């Protein structure tokens, strides 16, 4: 995670050094005005006004720490706050690190955990106001984020949290193996409300179901040169739908390096918000397995099958779940990683 720190006083700049030296697991940049540039070893000059700098941090950083008053922090972030799914973690601490406050994205963004870590560094008091945390209850959104699960509905996640805080039991269903003891908040006999972990976002084992989707599917895609985005996007969506797989389960799109500048595939990856990886024919040919071979593809690309091999090459377990499927001259295949639910 990238962390941007903004400090506004002499002591604040000194605290920046302490944080940088003790947050070695993160990429940390600390910024001050010219007045305080000489009083700390690791700080950098903030060349823009705070609002411009904060706007950039919202786009590029996973966490923003303000060393100063909460008022400064709130005013700086106010124009840019959008959604708990996308907003970075925001933390505020006074210049001596006495009070470290989790301000924004406490669960999904990880601000609560990082607040506790920073408070240990400064010897300060972690200030966390999230209801589930202060009551020692299961925080479903935080657990889902840590477990690489996509939350299909933040409203339903909020409703589940409200039920937990009211000491109501929630049900639980999983298509995947579960490790560890189930939290006390879960009752496997509960049918009214519950959590469902599946690749199928339409699965509904409870009257009120919160669907959580593991991001474990690697797609392999092949197409003719210049195939338009709509053809590629609709082919992928159709293949996934036929196999009851949510597109939120996709973690990457993969192809041969001949397609690395294929705009339709690149745009599809951007829409799905996943990386697009390409591989050489030699790398693809090294993948072992039974494939839907094509002499024509082999003559053009030097590999007998692009989509199946490309799907498998980025899969940890090399397990193909969708063989080559052709829709409008677009070929799609999918591989899946092993996944286990951890409590």
Characterization of this structure:
With 343 residues, the protein is α/β, with parallel strands linked by helices. The chain has three domains: 2-129, Rossmann fold (3-Layer(aba) Sandwich), CATH 3.40.50; 140-214, Udp-n-acetylmuramoylalanyl-d-glutamate--2,6- Diaminopimelate Ligase, Chain: A, domain 1 (3-Layer(aba) Sandwich), CATH 3.40.1390.40; 217-340, 2-Layer Sandwich (Nucleotidyltransferase, domain 5). Helices cover 32% and strands 27% of the residues. The chain has twelve helices and 18 strands. It has helices spanning 10-22, 50-60, 70-77, 111-122, 131-134, 140-146, 154-165, 229-242, 263-272, 281-285, 295-301, 307-313; strands at 2-7, 27-32, 44-45, 63-67, 89-93, 99-104, 125-127, 149-151, 171-174, 177-179, 193-197, 208-214, 217-222, 250-256, 276-279, 319-327, 330-336, 340-342. The strands form four sheets. Strands 3-2-1-4-5-6-7 form a seven-stranded mixed beta sheet, with helices on both faces. β4, α3 (70-77) and β5 (89-93) form a beta-alpha-beta unit. α8 (229-242) crosses α9 (263-272). It is globular and about 70 Å long. The protein starts with a strand and ends with a strand. The relative contact order is 0.09.
């Amino acid at each position: 995670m990238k962390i941007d720190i903004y400090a506004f006083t002499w002591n604040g700049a000194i605290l920046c050094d302490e944080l940088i030296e003790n947050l070695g697991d993160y990429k940390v940049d600390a910024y001050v005005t010219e007045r305080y540039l000489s009083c700390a070893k690791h700080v950098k000059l903030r060349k823009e006004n705070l609002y411009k700098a904060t706007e950039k941090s919202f786009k590029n950083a996973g966490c923003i720490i303000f060393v100063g008053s909460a008022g400064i922090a709130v005013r700086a972030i106010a124009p840019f706050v959008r959604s708990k799914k996308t907003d970075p973690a925001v933390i505020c601490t006074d210049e001596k690190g006495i009070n470290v406050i989790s301000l924004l994205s406490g669960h999904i963004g990880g601000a609560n955990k990082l607040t506790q870590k920073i408070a240990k560094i400064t010897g300060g008091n972690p200030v966390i106001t999230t209801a589930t945390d202060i009551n020692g209850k299961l925080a479903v959104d935080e657990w889902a984020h840590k477990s690489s699960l996509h939350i299909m509905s933040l409203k339903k996640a909020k409703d589940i949290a409200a039920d937990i805080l009211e000491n109501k039991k929630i049900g639980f269903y999983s298509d995947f193996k579960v490790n560890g003891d189930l939290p006390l908040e879960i009752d496997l006999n509960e049918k009214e409300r519950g959590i469902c972990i599946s690749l199928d976002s339409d699965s509904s084992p409870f009257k009120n179901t919160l669907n959580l989707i593991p991001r474990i599917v690697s797609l392999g895609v092949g197409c003719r040169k210049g195939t338009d985005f709509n053809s590629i996007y609709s082919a992928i969506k159709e293949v996934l739908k036929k196999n009851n797989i949510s597109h939120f389960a996709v973690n990457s799109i993969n192809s041969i390096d001949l397609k690395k500048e294929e705009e339709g595939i690149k745009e599809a990856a951007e829409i799905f918000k996943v990386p697009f990886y390409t591989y050489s024919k030699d790398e693809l040919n090294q993948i072992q397995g039974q494939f839907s071979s094509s002499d024509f593809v082999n003559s053009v690309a030097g590999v007998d099958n692009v989509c199946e091999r490309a799907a498998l090459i980025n899969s940890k377990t090399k397990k193909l779940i969708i063989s080559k499927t052709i829709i409008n001259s677009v070929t799609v295949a999918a591989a899946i990683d092993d996944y286990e639910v951890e409590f």
